[in-house]
Design brief:
The chain is an alpha/beta fold. It contains 13 helices and twelve strands. The strands form three sheets. It has a seven-stranded mixed β-sheet with strand order 2-8-7-6-5-3-4, with helices on both faces. The chain has a three-stranded antiparallel β-sheet with strand order 9-12-11. The relative contact order is 0.16.
Amino acid sequence: MPATMGMLYSYESDLAELAARGRRRELAPRAGIDFTSNDYLALAESAELRQAAHDALARGVPIGAGGSRLLRGNHPEHEALEADAAAFFATETALYFGGGFTANYAIFATLPQRGDLVVYDALIHASVHQGVRSGRADHTAAAHNDANAFEDAIRTWRARGGTGRPWIAVESLYSMDGDRAPLADLARIADRHDGILVIDEAHATGVFGPDGRGLGAGLEGRPNVVSLHTCGKGLGVMGGLVCGPRVFRDFLVNRCRPFIYATAPSPLVAALVRAALKLCRDEPARRQRLARLVAHAGAELPRTCGIEPSGSQIQPVVVGSDARALAVAAAMQAEGYDIRAIRPPTVPEGTSRLRLALTLNVSEQVVSDMLGVLARQLRNFQT
């Protein structure tokens, strides 16, 4: 065997093992009616954002930043976006990152300090897991959406001599289950224990709250609340906005490696995020239409598929095995619907599923038609 083949064997072996378990991933092109994207408000390909891009280019906004923001990469569009975002979300400051994963990772790799404790929801985004592993604080998981479990973890840590600050990390709307965090209860726990509540609003931004400010809108602006607003889902663009007290923003600018050493996000994209925030504020009809679509699907799901609705634009259809999830997804794709299988480690073992995403790219009739086909395919592929 050539030396180069030997070097690559372990990678091929690992991929073969994933394939044998039905977990090897492949990139697939877009095809069929959209039931898988996070483009909830149908802004990603909207005429409004196309016009905003045209206008920004016409006034000379560059496509690339040319360097990190601590060098020449800091552009007036970045600062204008951050000022607009702070005003929109009613928080003291905002800091723009090139991606939501990077922003979430940066929060937990940088802000919690040695001696602190991060208590995170067991189903939280992988970006938080990566961040706490790279950070200096201790960390532990709490049972999903169980506020008492968060408080118990903090009390246990204190009883064992913990003297730092507790950080509570949750998603306001969970990406694979579509359910909501008990934010009011968690805020009270943070207050009682001199802690910080970090709210990942990735799947709620643009969709819920006044003007689409998210499910934690009533908590923004508190000195012990940090929020992440992803720009690549409901807002239809890309990036992530970390919102919170000015001292945290300044600390990230000075200590956060993913911010300091990364080329700044595109100024053109920053201008488009500004336009998307304005659309959220000025066009409530989009959120209202999406709410009607969610309500329609919620009424149809029990009738057609015997599935309890999540109450949000994210609807899991848990089928159990990896093989069944892949088979049903493939059948739905063959019927013309872009629906994908979600498998471990993205979701817990034994809970492979289809993740149905409701967006304004589809109508109520299309939703009804899709659910009828889904019911038939679930029967065809019984466990």
